Structures are given as C-alpha cells and as structure tokens.
Amino acid sequence: MYDYGQGGFKVDMLVDLGLCPDVRHVRISSLTQLSPLLERLEMRMRLLGYSRKDTFAAMLALVEVATNAIRHGNRLDPTKQVLISYVMGPDEILIEVEDEGEGFDPNCVADPLTGDNVGGVRRHDPTYLARQILARGHRFEI
Predict the structure, then answer these.
(1) Which class is domain 22-135?
(2) Were both Cys, which of 10, 70, 88, 106 would link to 127 (CB 3.0–4.6 Å)?
(3) Please, which residues bridge with residue 85 across strands?
(4) Torsion of CA 127, 89, 80, 75, to 10 degrees
C-alpha cells in the first residue's frame, strides 16, 4: 500500500479503500498486448489536457515498468500475467503494475550512473527511469 505522507493524494486513498469506481484493470501476458492500453491511456491523457511532456513521461514509465514485469518478474512465462491498474483525473494519474514474480525492493537496485555501474548492464534500468520521472514531478507507483 502506498504511504501517503503529508498532503497525500486523494485518488490513492479512494483506490485503496475500494471507493473509486473509475479504476480500470488490464491483464497482459506479453508486450504485444501493451500497445492497445498505451493508445487508450495516451488518448485519455490528451482529452484530460495533459501536456505532451507529461503524456510521454507516463507512457515511458509504464512501458519500462511493464516490460520489466513481463521479462524479469514473470520471466516471459505466457501463463503468468501482469496486472496494470490505473485511474486518471484532471490533476493526477495513478498507475500500478503488478506481476506474479517473487518481487524485489526497488530501493536496493544500484544507481546505474554511479561507481562500477556506469556503462554496465544496469544502464537501462526501468526502476531508475521510473524514479527519474518521479523526481521530475510526475507520479508513478511501482
């Protein structure tokens, strides 16, 4: 469950309490199934007036995290699914991605831009990308 902290997000609380009727759930088991969802989310963000920058950031973060969930969480097992839940409002978007893998603590993933990791295998790290998008004022829950 998300730690709301000071001045938390109203949508988060409604979703966690099961009181938000606008939450959508999509289950996918392959990357090809992600495209229709991305198109739908992008169109909805445009209709709600989100900037191209915000739309691009949300789509990039979702692609990276969903790809990681399918490849590493579910280990490309077609019998396992990734659940993508989302709710959008005019001021905020909450997207949650859950796979059937063992899980990990994203805070324990090494920063790909420091020390021995620079230029290494971890350079294309979806959790790093998602955190960078968050650090720039976008909200994305992993």
Answers:
(1) alpha beta
(2) 106
(3) 25, 96
(4) -10
For the purposes of burial, counting CB atoms within 10 Å of the CB of 27, is it exposed (0-12), middle (13-18) or buried (19 or more)?
A: exposed
Max CA pair span of the chain? 47
**Could you report the per-residue pLDDT of 81-104, keeping only the tens digit for each?**
999 988 888 888 888 889 998 877
Q: Give residue 30's identity as a one-letter amino acid code.
A: S
Edge-to-edge order in the sheet of strand 24-28: 24-28, 82-88, 93-98
Q: Give the model confidence (pLDDT) of 43-53 as tens digits.
A: 999 999 999 99
The answer to whether 60 touches 133, Cβ cutoff 8 Å, is: yes
